[in-house]
């Protein structure tokens, strides 16, 4: 099996090279035979890599420990559920997974792209094949998943227990899907630059794929946050770890692109900016891969140091130089068709939104790289942590949130004063009303006050937009209000789906603001003893230690503590938290013990209990109790982000002509203020 | 009312001012953030060097990256106090930490200790991060 896998990697390498060469040459010389060959190469590439993946999975399931990778990441007693995910639990396997998914996207884009956009396909095939070939090269020369050991161990080392969580099965693939699919918009951008077809056509092709990758990345980030929250036991979901930042960076840049692309579609402006964003997003994804794999930046996520980092660095530098050279050589073709007419216009608000997003991205990048930069320049390593990122990004984030509410209220080209008054009246009232309620309720934290009342303003904007749209439909077609709302969503998915994402973003901001109110206590309790903690929801929670149970499970020894929870003296429920010592098939401990957090989740607060350890093997145990406000809203806000994204992406929705007419109608609607 | 400044300034110029304001505040926030929250990241040798050159380095918040000296870890669960020595091979420092260590903390693991070196020569840690070689890689058995 391993031999087959190894051979198919070599095959994939050759096919990838072939696809890259035929794609570029066929595209430039306009030779149909070579173009067809490049297209076929993406199919063959996917087939070869799929064979490699299947061989690796078969080796994993057969416990073929003569393979270094299988021995390093699995063991005989690893639950089947996690055997699958061993494919991407380690560096080498994740490279294979990456290349395979990329080739899948490369193939899909060849199949699914139709009509006018087909002219870009040879170049798209060439770019995707080039990137995939790079990954295959790294595997063949530096990190081969099919490398054999000189002996056959009886059992493997097993999987890190922190990866043995359902989140682990979904988080990396989703994040990878997002990360990898950025290559497709990038490939279209390069194709447009190479073929000099820089009219608005390429934008449509690029936009959909950017949305796909934005959505996967959003899901990946959210599942990652959830995994960190339930598995790592430190009580939060975002730590500004370099690897988290690496995934956030392309997300921010793509979010900027998805907004500024509208300016190009409607007004023919920002062409240079948009292309730069897409190229930048992709380079950041490769940069993220580089910092997670090279060990240049200390991170909880980083793979062990290896030569793989150098490959990525070289690739990153080469790709940056080539893209930049190509981009600058085509700048004359990217002149704007219109100029900014007024500061108070939709265009200007999108520009400010973009500047804020890029500003946030830049500060995150700077903070992540600061230890390296300061060491290179001043000779001393200076690190910045969560306080830096919070201090910088809370004001910027709040400004961005405000733009979310302001942007949709301002007309394209130029807004008039009466128009602005009519547009802002309801949302502003909603924001001020929210602020007053919070002040009456006794909230005094400035950050939270601002986040939630700006949230109220944005929510007001979205409700007003829906109400006006629905009323217009009601007048024009006589539809009932709920039906009109559904029709709005169905007919103008981008606009109203986008608003749904905005509502979800408000929920997320409110949830983030809630974390300012977490309360925490640590206590050493004998069975029967209890600890009290007052939450910021006004309730007093009493945690009583009921006792410890110890037992063996499939691949671990479990020490579990049961805790009775009372709220204001009334029974509220029970929590269970565990320490797990994973063992191999012979019962010897593997890895350090891991913690299973006990979580009771509610609309207003989460009760979060961690078992820190037992005192000298008795039933006396050390616990950390945390009350985390509004965490629930992160997960549900996240689901609504995904829902909104899916609505925007959903295919169909009439011919381009119909869409244009509707878009024009929507613009008129805003200009006239309903 | 809007008319007069429209005549004075073009939209592009006004936008440029807005853009400069945003870029300026991002820059300001970053610079002040680094100034206020940046911490030295040192190895024990570098720390020893700095302390001998400049005694004000005592009691300054910093991070120290090193390896835990095997056999020096003592845990007192009842008071939740953890003490151990860290070293980079040449210089070693004792560390005292009150709180819950991460799951990945063990003997001989690589750690990042966040805290202050007091004049008694002990690093009083406020946070201990264990860098278990990597989270994704199995820890090689000693």
Describe the structure.
The complex is a heterodimer of chains A (674) and B (142). With 674 residues, chain A is of the alpha+beta class. Helices cover 63% and strands 12% of the residues of chain A. In chain A, the strands form two sheets. A five-stranded antiparallel beta sheet of chain A has the order 3-4-5-6-7. The longest helix of chain A has 33 residues, at 346-378. The model of chain A is unreliable at 654-658, 664-668 and 670-674 (pLDDT under 50). With 142 residues, chain B is of the alpha+beta class. Residues 1-5 and 133-142 of chain B have low confidence and may be disordered. In chain B, strands 2-4-5-7-6 form a five-stranded mixed beta barrel. Chain B folds into two domains: 2-37; 40-131, Nucleic acid-binding proteins (OB fold (Dihydrolipoamide Acetyltransferase, E2P), Beta Barrel). The radius of gyration of chain B is 24 Å and the shape is elongated. Chains A and B meet through helix 13, strand 1, helix 14 and strand 9 of A and helix 2 and strand 1 of B.
Rg of chain A, Cα atoms, Å: 27 Å
What is the H/E order of chain A?
Answer: HHHHHHHHHHHHHEHHHHHEEEEEEEEEHH
Number of β-strand runs of chain B: 7
Q: Assign the CATH superfamily of the largest domain in chain B.
A: Nucleic acid-binding proteins
- Using the CA coordinates, give the radius of gyration of chain B: 24 Å
Number of helical regions of chain B: 3
> Largest sheet of chain B, if any?
5 strands, mixed, barrel
Largest interface summary = A-B, 69 and 47 residues
What is the overall pLDDT average of chain B?
79
By oligomeric state, this entry counts as heterodimer
First-to-last CA distance of chain A = 66 Å
Elements of chain B, N to C (H/E) = HHEHEEEEEE
CATH topology of the largest domain in chain B: OB fold (Dihydrolipoamide Acetyltransferase, E2P)
Strands across the major sheet of chain A, in which order?
Answer: 3-4-5-6-7
């Amino acid at each position: 099996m391993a031999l087959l896998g190894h051979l198919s990697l070599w095959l994939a390498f050759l096919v990838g090279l072939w696809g890259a060469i035929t794609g570029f040459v066929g595209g430039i010389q306009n030779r149909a035979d070579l173009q067809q060959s490049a297209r076929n190469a993406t199919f063959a590439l996917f087939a070869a890599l799929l064979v490699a993946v299947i061989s690796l999975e078969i080796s994993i399931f057969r416990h073929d420990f003569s393979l270094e990778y299988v021995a390093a990441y699995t063991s005989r007693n690893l639950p089947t559920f996690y055997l699958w995910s061993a494919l991407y639990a380690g560096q080498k396997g994740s490279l294979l997974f990456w290349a395979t998914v990329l080739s899948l996207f490369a193939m899909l884009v060849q199949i699914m792209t139709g009509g006018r956009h087909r002219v870009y396909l040879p170049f798209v095939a060439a770019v995707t094949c080039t990137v995939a070939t790079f990954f295959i090269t790294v595997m063949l020369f530096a990190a081969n998943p099919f490398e054999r050991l000189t002996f056959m161990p009886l059992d493997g080392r097993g999987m890190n227990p922190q990866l043995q969580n359902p989140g682990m099965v979904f988080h990396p693939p989703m994040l990878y899907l997002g990360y990898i699919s950025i290559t497709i918009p990038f490939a279209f951008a390069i194709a447009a630059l190479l073929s000099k077809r820089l009219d608005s056509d390429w934008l449509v092709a690029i936009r959909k794929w950017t949305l796909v990758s934005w959505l996967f990345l959003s899901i990946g980030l959210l599942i990652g946050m959830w995994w960190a929250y339930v598995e790592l036991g430190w009580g939060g979901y975002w730590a500004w770890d370099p690897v988290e930042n690496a995934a956030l960076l392309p997300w921010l840049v793509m979010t900027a692109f998805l907004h500024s692309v509208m300016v190009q579609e409607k007004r023919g402006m920002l062409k240079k900016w948009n292309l730069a964003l897409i190229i930048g997003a992709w380079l950041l994804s490769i940069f993220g891969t580089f910092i997670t794999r090279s060990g240049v930046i200390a991170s909880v996520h980083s793979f062990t140091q290896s030569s793989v980092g150098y490959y990525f660095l070289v690739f990153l530098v080469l790709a940056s130089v080539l893209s930049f050279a190509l981009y600058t050589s085509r700048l004359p073709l990217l002149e704007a068709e219109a100029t900014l007419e007024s500061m108070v216009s939709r265009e200007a608000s999108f520009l400010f939104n973009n500047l804020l997003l890029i500003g946030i991205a830049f500060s995150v990048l700077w903070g992540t790289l600061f230890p390296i930069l300061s060491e290179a320049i001043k000779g001393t390593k200076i690190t910045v942590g969560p306080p830096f990122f919070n201090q910088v990004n809370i004001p910027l984030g709040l400004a961005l949130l405000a733009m979310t509410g302001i942007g949709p209220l301002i007309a394209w080209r130029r807004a008039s004063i009466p128009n602005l008054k009519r547009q802002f009246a309801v949302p502003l009232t909603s924001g001020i009303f929210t602020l007053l309620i919070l002040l009456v309720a006794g909230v005094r934290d400035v950050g939270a006050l601002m986040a939630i009342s700006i949230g109220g303003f944005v929510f007001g904007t979205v409700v007003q937009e829906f109400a006006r749209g629905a009323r217009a439909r009601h007048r024009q077609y006589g539809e009932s209000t709920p039906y009109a709302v559904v029709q709005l969503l169905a007919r103008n998915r981008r606009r109203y789906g986008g608003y749904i994402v905005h509502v979800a973003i408000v929920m997320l901001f409110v949830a983030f603001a809630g974390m300012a109110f977490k309360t925490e206590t640590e206590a050493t309790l004998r069975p029967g003893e209890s600890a009290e903690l007052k939450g910021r929801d006004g309730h007093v929670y009493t945690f009583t230690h009921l006792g410890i149970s110890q037992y063996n499970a499939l691949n671990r020894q479990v020490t579990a503590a049961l805790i009775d929870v009372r709220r204001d003296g009334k029974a509220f429920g029970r929590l269970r938290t565990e320490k797990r010592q994973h063992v191999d098939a012979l019962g010897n401990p593997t890895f350090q013990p891991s913690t299973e957090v006990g979580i009771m989740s509610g609309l207003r607060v989460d009760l979060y209990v961690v078992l820190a350890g037992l005192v000298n093997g008795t039933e006396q145990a050390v616990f950390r109790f945390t009350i985390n406000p509004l965490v629930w809203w992160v997960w549900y806000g996240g689901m609504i982000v995904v829902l909104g994204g899916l609505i925007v992406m959903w295919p169909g929705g009439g011919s381009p002509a119909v869409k244009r007419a509707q878009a024009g109608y929507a613009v008129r609607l805003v200009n006239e203020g309903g | 009312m809007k008319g007069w400044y429209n005549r004075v300034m073009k939209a592009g110029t006004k936008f440029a001012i807005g853009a400069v304001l945003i870029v300026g505040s991002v820059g300001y926030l970053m610079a002040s953030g680094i100034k206020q929250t940046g911490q030295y990241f040192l190895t024990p040798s570098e720390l020893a060097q700095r302390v001998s050159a400049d005694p004000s380095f005592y009691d300054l918040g910093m991070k120290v990256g090193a390896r835990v000296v095997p056999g020096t870890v003592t845990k007192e669960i009842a008071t939740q106090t953890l003490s151990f020595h860290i070293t980079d091979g040449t210089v070693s420092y004792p560390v005292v930490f009150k709180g819950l260590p991460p799951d990945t903390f063990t003997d001989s693991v690589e750690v990042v200790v966040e805290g202050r070196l007091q004049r008694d020569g002990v690093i009083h840690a406020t946070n201990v991060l264990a860098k278990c070689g990597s989270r994704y890689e199995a820890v090689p058995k000693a």
